[in-house]
Write a structure and sequence with these properties.
Blueprint lengths: L1 H25 L3 E2 L5 E4 L5 H10 L5 H13 L9 E4 L3 E2 H10 L5 E4 L6 H8 L5 E2 L5 H7 L21 E4 L3 E2 H21 L10 H14 L6 H13 L7 H8 L9 H5 L22 H8 L8 E4 L5 E4 L2 H11 L6
Parallel strand pairs: 6-8
Antiparallel strand pairs: 1-4, 2-3, 5-7, 9-10
């Protein structure tokens, strides 16, 4: 009797091992999801996933049954966390481990210097898995703080976020990212203000930001930025008009069609530095750290003019006569 009982137990043990081994095989099935990112919605469970993967012909009905039985032996297989995950072809066991880990996908966005806030906002609103809860620049201005001790709040959101690459997870609100970028801007601006040269004709941080935005638009060549800033500082100190085309273009808005004309230079909009002396009423683009530093610490120079050479750099002049010669050479191709 004991012999038969022992044999029966052995048979059952072998059978159980065989069943367990067969159930284990389903976890080795290769899964290739149809998209790069997979969203496990709140409330989803192993059964609903099985149904979804059956419909996509990634698992058979029999494999789903095996998986459900496997989850009875290993309840942790059912402990899934909602979120959006970056996926690739992998074994089912690896996929379920990922969905249990909570290691959701990280997305990146880039806020670009030299562009306007509106241009950046339009691009950000198109990004995947980002909740675009900011409709326009006016709404953005309402949510971006400005330290009260720095004076009156800017009337525009222009340049109030720092250009950089920021990371977010799925369904993050755009407003959250903009607030983060705004705080970085405020910190950078304060650092630049605290380190600025003495005697600059700048009354507050906002004027520093405004000047830096002009430098940003005038050159992308980092070594030149302090000299470009020096030209505008010299003009401010000598009461000369800044006469910088980027401010004119900014103020024209949609009326600018890619070619600045003589009548544009006479347009009386408030950003026209050919018409009005001093700085424009606010920044004209998002500002990089290099431009902020240049505006706070311009080069020591007596230059008052510059003209583009056509290679990304500029020719600087101290007198109008020198400048006119440079214009003839670099704009009209005439050598003296």
């Amino acid at each position: 009797m004991k012999k038969f009982l022992l044999q029966g137990l052995i048979v059952l043990a072998v059978a159980a091992f065989g069943v367990r081994n067969e159930l284990q095989q389903v976890l080795q099935v290769q899964i290739k999801l149809p998209t790069t990112y997979f969203e496990l919605k709140s409330g989803a469970n192993l059964s609903s996933l099985c149904r979804q993967w059956q419909q996509q012909q990634l698992l058979t009905a029999w494999q789903c049954q095996q998986l459900k039985l496997q989850s009875l032996l290993n309840p942790q297989l059912r402990q899934l966390q909602a979120g959006v995950y970056a996926v690739q072809p992998m074994r089912l066991q690896q996929l379920l481990q990922l969905l249990r880990s909570g290691k959701v996908a990280q997305f990146s966005l880039t806020i670009r210097e030299g562009q306007t806030f509106a241009q950046n906002l339009q691009q950000l609103q198109q990004l995947p898995y980002l909740d675009a809860d900011v409709a326009d620049a006016d709404k953005a201005r309402q949510l971006l703080p400005w330290p009260t001790e720095w004076g009156s709040q800017p009337s525009s959101a222009e340049a109030l976020v720092f250009p950089d690459t920021y990371f977010y997870t799925a369904h993050t609100k755009l407003s959250v990212v903009l607030k983060r970028a705004n705080q970085v801007l405020l910190d950078k601006l304060d650092t630049a203000w605290q380190s600025k040269q003495g005697g600059l004709p700048l009354q507050n941080r906002y004027e520093l930001l405004t000047l830096a935005s002009i430098v940003e638009k005038e050159t992308g060549h980092l070594p030149e930025k302090p000299l470009i800033a020096a030209v505008f500082i010299n003009r401010l100190q000598t009461k000369m008009k800044l006469q910088t085309d980027p401010t004119v273009i900014y103020g024209l808005g949609d009326r600018y069609q890619g070619d600045i004309k003589r009548e544009h230079l006479k347009d009386p909009h408030p950003y026209n530095t050919y018409v009005y002396a001093g700085l424009p009423p606010g920044p004209i683009a998002l500002v990089s750290w290099g431009s902020l530093q240049a505006a706070a610490q311009p080069a020591q120079s007596d230059k008052l003019y510059f003209v583009a050479r056509g290679d990304g750099t500029h020719q600087f002049s101290q007198s109008l006569t020198e400048h006119n010669k440079a214009v003839q050479q670099y704009i009209f191709g005439k050598k003296s």
